[in-house]
Write a structure and sequence with these properties.
By secondary structure, the chain is of the alpha+beta class. Helix content is 46%, strand content 16%. The strands form three sheets. A two-stranded antiparallel ribbon has the order 1-2. It has a two-stranded antiparallel ribbon with strand order 3-4. It has a two-stranded antiparallel ribbon with strand order 5-6.
Length: 171
């Protein structure tokens, strides 16, 4: 099964949030293990695609959403408590290796850890699409930090077209 989501390629934490989208009503990739398998494959995560992993990933998605939208941190810390980074010195230099006690928590833990990195780097660049009917998130990598839509080709054009239509109606 191909990944049906309209927006891919965001950092892992936001990619997990983007497993929910609007397309003739609300859509959710993570309603079953098959959808989880699609997300794991797209994200490049080698983890079991089973009910326990699905539950852990849904808990992580909820925690990440709560952190991004409401500045909550308790649920995110609960997810992060399932793992840690073990530091190693290898032949190629220093390296951090994620360790989780339960493999089902690896994908969700990686997404939660990714959110910490985004928050450290530039929390104001984590955005939800400005289109009123869009629920997708993106990390603004534009030079001046003023990106408003997850995609100019879809939501940006729709917004501009609606504004143009409204102006034409007034004239």
């Amino acid at each position: 099964m191909l990944d049906p989501r309209p927006h891919l390629g965001e950092p892992l934490a936001l990619d997990l949030l983007n497993t929910r989208w609007m397309d003739n009503g609300p859509q959710d990739l993570l309603t079953d293990v098959a959808g989880l398998r699609v997300w794991l494959t797209t994200a490049g995560i080698d983890a079991p695609a089973d009910e326990r992993t699905l539950e852990a990933v849904l808990a992580a998605r909820s925690a990440i959403y709560d952190t991004v939208r409401h500045a909550g941190h308790a649920a995110l810390n609960d997810v992060l408590a399932h793992g840690r980074i073990r530091r190693l010195l290898t032949e190629s230099g220093p390296r951090g290796v994620p360790e989780v006690g339960d493999a089902a928590w690896l994908p969700g833990w990686l997404a939660a850890d990714d959110l910490l990195h985004l928050l450290e780097r530039a929390p104001d660049r984590i955005r939800q699409c400005a289109h009123p009917d869009c629920v997708l998130f993106f990390y603004d990598t534009s030079k001046n930090g003023t990106r408003r839509w997850h995609s100019m080709a879809t939501c940006g054009n729709r917004t501009k077209a609606a504004r143009h239509y409204s102006a034409q109606q007034r004239d």
